[in-house]
Amino acid sequence: MVKENSVYKEMLSLLDQYEEDIYSDWCNGLEQACVMNLNQPLISRNASSGLVSVNFNPKLTEVLKDVKYIQSLSKIHIPAAAMTVFDKRDMFTKYVSSLQLLVQWYNKLKQTVLEVELPLIRAELESIDVQLTRAETDLTWQDLDCGSFISTTKDLVQDLVCRVSRAKENCNAIQSLMKLWSKQAMFCRKDNKRGSLIQLEDRGDRVNKKFSGTKKDGDSIHELVQDNMVLLHADPASEAWQSYLEYVDEMVVEGLFSYISHSLQFFVDNMQSWPNQAPLFEAQLMLNGSAMIFLPSLERDAGDGLYELMEGLVGDIFKTSVNINRVAAHLSTESYQVVMDDMLDLLDLRREIMERVENILKKAINYQSKFDCYTHLWQDDRAEFLSQFLLYGHALTADEMEAHRADVLHESPPTIDNFKEQIDYFEDLYAEISKLEDFRVFNGWFRVDVKFFKVSLLNIVMKWSWLFKEHLLTYVTNSLDDLQMFVRATVEGLNHPVDKHNLVEVMSHLLAVRDRQMATDKMFEPLRATIILLERYAVTIPDQVYSQMESEKAIRHMEKEVAELQESTNLFDVAIPDYRDIKLCRREITILKELWDMVEFVQSSVKNWTVTNWRQINVDQMDAELGRFAKDIRKLDKEARVWDVYSGLDLYVKNLLTSLRAVSHLQNLAIRERHWVQLIRTTQVHKYTQ
Q1: Which of 121, 289, 264 is nearest to 187 (CA)?
Q2: Potential cystine with 297: which of 160, 205, 305, 552 (Cβ 3.0-4.6 Å)?
Q3: Residues in domain Dynein heavy chain tail (predicted)?
């Protein structure tokens, strides 16, 4: 036990000695170190980078920590030098914190200031450097005005750094503003749908809105630049400020370049021959008078054609740059558009777009020549053609036309087979044209709409076909009417009692019957063949036509009597009425003839449609043709509108238009089997197509 106690005391003695040695070593040179470090400058500067740092020696920080620890022991004497440092610990902490902020701001300014900004703040920066030089050489941690210096210099650095930072933020705001331009090209597809054509219906509003927005952004850019001039204390006439304006000006040029190239790239990307590429532009092939035309025109110098349209769209994009006033107004080029027009990359995009348009123009016009084989349909005079056909029984060749003009061509009136041949030709032509494509797409991005041309062409072919059908129909009605008139006159003449006064008249009727018998016997076979032919083409011979022709004969007879009566009254100088009723009757007969011709034409056209297969029904084509029918009906004489036949025809066409809309809905791929079942149940019609 005694031994353990001895060891314990020896251990305590050694620990006390070790503690005294440590304390002695800590105190050794402590005062000198404190004095030396407190006499160091406040900051130090790196000679190579020019950056500064707080020059508070880490040994002083250790002294503060050691003193704080030793004080907690309460039995060790602390040297006066260490206590002096410790007593000023709050002041040193404040100084170090302030200097660290000052150093951080200053170094950030030195590292981030742009070459173009430096000349504008050089004077202020040099003034700060003069202040910092004092802190690097003369001012130490023990100087009494150290706090005042740190506060003043910190405020100077903070003010400059804040103003430069705000100027940079303004430049970033300018760039952000211009980035928004490129988020949306000036032109786009309708409703931004991939399969839609380019949206040009609101072109004027879209362009004006873009110009207005760009002008507003340009004004904001100039306001931000003026703000930077104030922030950087710049002299507007100085070379340094003009260099800064050129820097911002180049920023605006890049923003405009980005927007214009993005808008042009929209056309480049959508005018490629990619697989599954949706058309961007469309032209309609139409028949206008005696010529085929495209709408818009595909002629290079048409003035309002596709080429000029494309030039206008590209021009609208470039003109965006006109709406911003030049930031660097001192430069020789006053407008940004001049700068944009000289950009080689933009010129290449522009040239590529226009070359693609030129290529399409050639292809589409070459495609149009495919339909030149039909030009005779709308260029030939139908009345003249029928006149020649009735003389020679066929279409005349060039040599025969010369002989016809010289009146040396032998006449050969057409047979019923000749009429059939002509009608079949146009019926086959109608079927051929009906099978023509509705659209043709070139290079994936340009579509030609042929539907309107097809409708016009089919309408003309129907008129050609009707030309011969109508002639045959007129031939039948006139022949039967003439025969009916002859029979009526003969029967009336033979019904008179035979006496010496009218014997001659009765004999003349009998003689007329004998003379006409052979011709009458021969006329029925051709008439029968003609009627059979007309029925084959679904042409009906309405009873109204017979009544009309009978009225026509009666009117002619009355007009003849009136003429004879007027001639007699002239001899006796007697006034008679002007017989307006007869003239009115003549006018109404003419209008009625036109109206019934229209009825027959419409009904025969619709009858052809009824045999069309369900999936082959072209709703757009039929709708356009019905629109033409309605237009032709409205062109009829206004006096016809009071007749029931006019009202019936007008209602018939309107009902067809309504039915056609229903057909369009039923052709929708969304129609399912249950919809057809419901339709059958509602309409009580039990036939439908799959």
Answers
A1: 264
A2: 305
A3: 7-148
Cα separation of 492 and 486, whole Å? 10
Q: How many CA atoms lie within 13 A of 51 on its CB side?
A: 12
SS3 286: strand
Q: How far separated are the first and last CA of the chain, in Å rounded? A: 117
**pLDDT, tens digit, 9 for 90 and up, residues 120-140:** 999 999 898 888 888 888 887
For the sheet with 291-295, list strands across it.
291-295, 281-288, 446-449, 439-442
Architecture of the domain spanning 2-170: Up-down Bundle (1.20)
pLDDT higher than 80, residue 109:
yes
Residue pair 178/324 in contact (Cβ under 8 Å)? The answer is no
Cβ neighbors of 628 (< 8 A, separation 6 or more) are 455, 459
Buried b / exposed e over 212-222, threshold 16 CB at 10 Å, is: eebeebbeebb
Residue type, 621: Q
What is the SS3 assignment for 143?
Answer: coil
Which residue's structure tokens are 């030039």?
311
The residues, any chain, with a CB within 8 Å of residue 404's CB and separated by 6 or more, are 388, 391, 392, 396
pLDDT above 70 as % of the chain: 74
Contact 366, 282 (CB under 8 A): no
Give 446's contacts (C-beta < 8 A, 6+ positions apart): 279, 280, 281, 282, 283, 360, 364
How far apart are alpha carbons 95 and 102 in whole angstroms?
10
Place of tokens 């495919």: 370
The conformation of residue 40, written as its DSSP 8-state character, comes to S
Among 167-181, 386-400, 581-595, which range has the highest average pLDDT? 167-181
Report the alpha-carbon angle 666-667-671, nearest 5: 60
Q: Using CA atoms, how far apart are residues 116 and 316, in angstroms rounded to an integer?
A: 34
Question: Sign (positive/negative) of CA torsion 213, 217, 223, 226?
Answer: negative
The H or E element that residue 419 is part of is helix 416-434
The CB-based long-range contact list for 237-243 (8 Å cut-off, 24+ gap) reads 239/119, 240/119, 240/120, 241/120, 242/328, 242/330, 243/116, 243/119
Q: Where are the domains of the chain?
A: 2-170, 184-373
